[in-house]
Amino acid sequence: MKKILMLFLLSILLVACNQNRIDFTGEGDHWDVTYHVKTKGENSQSSNLEIRYTGDDTPPEDIHFELGDEHNGNVSLDEGTYKGSPSQCSGCNIARESQEFQMIIEWDDQEEMIELSSE
């Protein structure tokens, strides 16, 4: 029984050590963006995106955003914030800490480009 418990704890430790969390952030004149990525091995990751309006005007109700080829769409804001649902991919090109992303946000006939980099 002790061997099984030790094996179980060791496997949890190995899995946890094989995961890496990277937070990519960027600020613009009207928006703050955070892109959370958790890599799992060499070709699997989960990610989550948060977009927050920081402008002086009333936040828009809806925006269109593009973050590379993987994340884009029309979304509604809740009190000036969009919190995306977690997404996962396997067999994909995973994000690297040295990588930078470009986010384009469009709203009310305006557009802003924001560079995201890891902290």
TrEMBL record:
Signal sequence range: 1-18
Which key words are in the record? Signal
Name this polypeptide is given: Lipoprotein
